[in-house]
Specification:
The complex is a heterodimer. In chain A, 31% of the residues lie in helices and 19% in strands. By secondary structure, chain A is of the alpha/beta class. Chain A has a domain of 210 residues: Thiamin diphosphate (ThDP)-binding fold, Pyr/PP domains (Rossmann fold). In chain A, helix 1 crosses helix 6, helix 2 runs parallel beside helix 10 and helix 3 crosses helix 4. Chain A is globular. Chain B has 3 domains: 218 residues, Pyruvate-ferredoxin oxidoreductase, PFOR, domain III (Pyruvate-ferredoxin Oxidoreductase, domain 3); 177 residues, Rossmann fold (3-Layer(aba) Sandwich); 102 residues, Rossmann fold. Chain B is built from 21 helices and 22 strands. In chain B, strand 10, helix 10 and strand 11 form a beta-alpha-beta unit. The chains are: A alpha/beta, B alpha/beta. Strand 12 of chain A pairs antiparallel with strand 9 of chain B.
Chain lengths: 332, 613
């Protein structure tokens, strides 16, 4: 049995050749997932990867676990069925900004509000890659793509804000170019009981190359991103000299010593939402790490509990009970 | 005079009133009591799609027809013998259907000037000769109910809400029905509101006594119970309820737990509601955010080893189209129930039609064959649901089961199957990694079902075409051709597991009637009537509409002419024409949001028989 041996990341690789473009951010994410699965020691047969449609949604084929490559936008719904049908399984949803926030936006918000126990990795590259370069619901206004030759006029979604608004119990952000951070965030998501929503800034080298480099490149990263760590002051900048202070419903830049200690476990989603608003201010760093993690009952356990409770009260039903009810009558 | 009992073997009553008058409840109570008396029966509720259209208007009229008899019957009746009209609108849109000389019971308490105006009537039909030729019984049921409930302390509004039970009491007297079943039901229903149980019980008894004391009717009828009904245990059942029971039983007979992912839609919602009550049968129901999520959760649940199911009506089936294709290519068992209603688009949501047949068979992108079944009547719905589950798991395929609004809300006595006679089709999951691959098939061409959690059988399936052997993604041209052909052949193989439909009629008939779905009753009644007249007419009923069963050509070849009555523009006729082009199929189509009635079919058949003679 596979649960007696310590698995390595490579044990989670399937025999299929990965067919993402060279340099695609997806490689970093799959490495991170495989490393996390090996670390947490889950048996391969108990893992189910569910995806929709898009470049990232080929992910399940490259994993030596159970996998379901669904249809466009519906990964969350399929995964909900898998998890509710068998809560013993560890279920991961692999989706993208088009799959999960556009065509599948409805299933995304509803699976988050229901708190289905599954890990959702949203590969955000701000572009439709598999259809070769059209703007997505996270593309910034003004982006020129094949369907927006004069620039996009649509206002974009901010994925973490959407997840927070939908009541997600775990919301985090990481980036493909920081594998260590990515792995830490995925490990936190894996440990969370409930819907864990992870936005990964993922670079599409072909159709939207460098979409995030204004924040993620080494030269600017320290100044323009802040890594939120539970129980630690919110500091950033060269030599971690700057801090963020939450005061009067706003976030201010202060010396590191005055920074507010970050706590993603508070019941209110307001602090997380406040931090996510930093994205809108070019002078402020963009937040990474776990924005929110709170405990709440999951859909799958509530469903199972209810089945158990009703069965306990009425006794397990039999075919005879089902058909031969007290309102029957006899003809001789 | 009132004590005189007139024996009548066959009666049809239509209760009609405002949608707020409780006519559906009145009808179902009359039905339940009548079933317990031992009559055969069939019902047809007819209500508007608005929950409460403006009170008193023609748009707001809700009707419930029950046909009960001392012998076997197959339809809710044609022309009613009795019409109960609670207001002018109900009277005016229903009286024309009555049999000549039929009884009209009118609640005169709702025939004020204002009531007539709401019903868009210039004159009072009670006095202007409209009802000449009928036996009209006028009674101020509002006033009688108020009198009966004097001293109960209930407000006038609550008192008037009991008038349907007063009316029910009168009909119980007229047709010699016992009060006890309804009295017991009221005690149960209003367990926590004893004052309402008491008020409605009083109204019911008062209506009954009123019939007795005032001799309103010229006679009282007795419809004796069916004498030659097969021995057994019976239960009164509505179509949607039968489907819910069949789906739960089907999962059980497969040795699986049921999972229903669904979304409310008229007229299918009841199935989700019924199944939601059955949690102690290890049933999981999830009311999802939309139709697509409904079917996708069911597909996910099947992947995980439950029996996934989804229930919907035509517009919802359209939304599930892409996901059905996913179930086809992943070859997972799934039962998709479509309780058809009149369309296109939102159409007539509370009216009947059978126009989703071709959508069910062909309505998916590319080559995506799947089996389609249809139920004939409420009792048949149970067997069809079990059969749909059998095909789904034995052939690893999504199955569409068609019902319709007429079956969904109709009721009839159902002779319960003996438990040991139910088919068993226990699923054996694949557990042995030796020689396993995801699309390894058995002799029927069904692939093995390995569920997540099983060591050594990790595999990936999905919407992309797969290699026939390894199950890996494959864009190979020959492999795609092989997989398309294999999936089709697998569905065609289902024919080997289904019987040739039984033919009922004389050898070499002048006319063969081919039916499917809910016209079953009207076809059977009209064909049997013509057979009794010595006509050379026969019939078959198709439960499996795709793939078509073996043996049809032999039956068709013996008939001079073949006719297909359908509540659509001739969809089965078109299918038969393409599958069996050597025969000519004539279509009788009706798309009025109403079922076929036996007399109208009889006229059609008679005309063809005359031409053939």
């Amino acid at each position: 049995m596979s649960d007696v041996q310590q698995l390595k990341p490579k044990d989670f690789k399937s025999d299929q050749e990965m067919r993402w473009c060279p340099g695609c951010g997806d490689y970093s994410v799959i490495n991170g997932v495989q490393a996390v699965l090996a670390d947490i020691g889950v048996a391969k047969e108990n893992v189910v990867m569910v995806s929709g449609i898009g470049c990232s949604s080929r992910f399940p084929y490259y994993m030596d676990t159970y996998g379901f490559h669904g249809i466009h936008g519906r990964a969350n719904a399929i995964a909900t069925g898998v998890k509710v049908a068998n809560p013993e399984l560890q279920v991961w949803v692999i989706t993208g900004d088009g799959d999960g926030l556009s065509i599948g936006g409805n299933h995304m918000i509803h699976s988050l509000r229901r708190n289905v126990d599954m890990k959702i990795i949203l590969f955000n590259n701000q572009i439709y890659g598999l259809t070769k370069g059209q703007y997505s619901p996270t593309s910034p206004q003004g982006l020129k793509t094949k369907t927006t030759p004069y620039g996009s006029v649509d206002a974009p979604f901010n994925p973490v804000q959407l997840a927070l608004g939908a009541g997600a119990t775990f919301v985090a952000r990481t980036m493909d170019v920081q594998p260590k951070h990515l792995k830490e965030v995925l490990a936190a998501a894996a440990a969370h009981k409930g819907s864990a929503f992870v936005e990964v800034w993922q670079n599409c080298v072909i159709f939207n190359d460098g979409a995030f480099k204004g924040w993620t490149e080494k030269a600017v990263r320290d100044e323009l991103t802040v890594n939120l760590e539970a129980g630690k002051p919110m500091v950033y900048g060269k030599d971690q000299a700057k801090g963020l202070k939450v005061q009067d419903m706003t976030v201010k830049v202060v010396p590191a010593a005055e920074a507010t200690v970050w706590d993603p476990t508070v019941a209110s989603a307001a602090p997380a939402f406040l931090m996510s608003q930093l994205d809108n201010d070019p002078a402020m760093p963009r937040p990474f790490g776990v924005l929110r993690t709170v405990a709440a009952p999951t859909l799958d356990e509530l469903v199972a509990d209810q089945v158990g409770a009703v069965t306990g009260k009425r006794g397990p039903g039999t075919l005879k009970d089902l058909l031969y009810t007290p309102d029957c009558w006899q003809v001789d | 005079m009132s004590s005189e009992l007139i024996r009548q073997d066959d009666v049809t009553i239509r209760f009609a009133g405002d949608s707020g008058d409780g006519m559906q409840l009145t009808g179902t109570q009359f039905t339940d009591t009548t079933a317990k008396v031992g009559n055969d029966l069939a019902t047809f509720p007819d209500f508007p799609s608005e929950i409460r259209a403006p009170a008193g208007t023609r748009a707001g009229v809700s009707g419930y027809q029950i046909h009960f008899s001392s012998s076997d019957i197959y339809t809710p009746g044609d022309a009613p013998d009795v019409l109960v009209a609670m207001n002018p609108a109900a009277l005016i849109i229903n009286y024309k259907d009555l049999k000549p000389g039929g009884i009209v019971l009118v609640n005169t308490g709702s025939f004020t000037e204002k009531d007539l105006e709401k019903a868009d009537l210039k004159s009072n039909p009670l006095t202007d000769g409209t009802l000449s030729g009928f036996r009209v019984i006028e009674e101020d049921i509002n006033q009688r109910t108020v009198e009966a409930l004097e001293g109960t302390g209930l407000g006038k509004k609550d008192v008037l809400r009991c008038k349907n039970f007063y009316t029910l009491g009168m009909m119980y007297w007229l047709f010699s029905r016992p009060l006890e079943p309804t009295l017991e039901w009221l005690q149960m229903k209003f367990k926590n509101k004893p004052e309402l149980a008491e008020a409605n019980s009083r109204a019911l008894k008062a209506g009954y006594n009123h019939g007795e004391l005032l001799r309103l009717f010229q006679g009282r009828y007795d419809v004796p119970k069916v004498d030659d009904a097969p021995a057994g245990t019976y239960r009164n059942i509505m179509g949607n309820h039968a489907l819910a029971l069949g789906l739960v039983a089907g999962a059980e007979l497969a040795g699986l737990k049921a999972f229903l992912g669904s979304y409310p839609i008229t007229p299918a919602t009841d199935i989700l509601q019924y199944m939601s009550e059955l949690k102690n049968y290890d049933v999981i129901t999830c009311q999802m955010e939309d139709e697509i999520a409904g079917i996708c959760t069911a597909i996910g649940a099947s992947f995980a080893g439950r029996l996934g199911m989804t229930t919907t009506s035509g517009p919802g089936l359209a939304l599930k189209t892409e996901a059905l294709g996913l179930a086809v290519i992943t070859e997972l068992p799934l039962v998709c129930v479509d309780v058809q209603r009149a369309g296109p688009s939102t159409g007539l949501p509370t009216k009947v039609e059978q126009a989703d047949l071709l959508q069910s068979i062909f309505g998916r992108n590319s080559e995506a064959p799947l089996p389609v079944l249809a139920c004939a009547c409420p009792a048949d719905a149970f067997d069809c649901a079990v059969e749909a589950c059998r095909i789904a798991v034995e052939y690893m395929t999504p199955v569409i089961l068609l019902s319709d609004n007429y079956i969904a809300n109709g009721a009839e006595p159902w002779k319960l199957p003996a438990l040991e006679e139910l088919p068993r089709f226990k699923v054996e999951f694949v557990t042995d990694p030796e020689g396993y691959w995801p699309y390894r098939r058995d002799a029927k061409l069904a692939r093995g079902w390995a569920k997540p959690g099983t060591p050594g059988l990790m595999h990936r399936i999905g919407g992309l075409e797969k290699d026939a052997k390894t199950g890996n993604v494959s864009h190979d041209p020959d492999n795609h051709q092989l997989m398309v052909e294999t999936r089709l052949q697998k569905v065609m193989n289902i024919r080997d597991s289904i019987p040739t439909p039984e033919y009922f009629g004389p050898p070499d008939p002048d006319l063969l009637v081919v039916g499917w779905g809910s016209p079953y009753g009207a076809i059977r009644s009209s064909v049997e009537a013509l057979q009794r007249d010595g006509k050379r007419i026969g019939r078959i009923h198709l439960r499996h509409v795709y793939p078509l069963p073996h043996g049809l050509a032999g039956i068709f070849a013996s008939a001079k002419r073949i006719v297909v009555p359908e509540l659509n523009m001739g969809q089965l006729a078109r299918l038969l024409t393409s599958e069996l082009p050597q025969f000519k199929f004539e279509s009788i189509h009706k798309v009025q949001g109403k079922p076929f009635f036996a007399p109208e079919l009889k006229v059609h058949f008679h005309r063809i028989l005359e031409e053939t003679a």
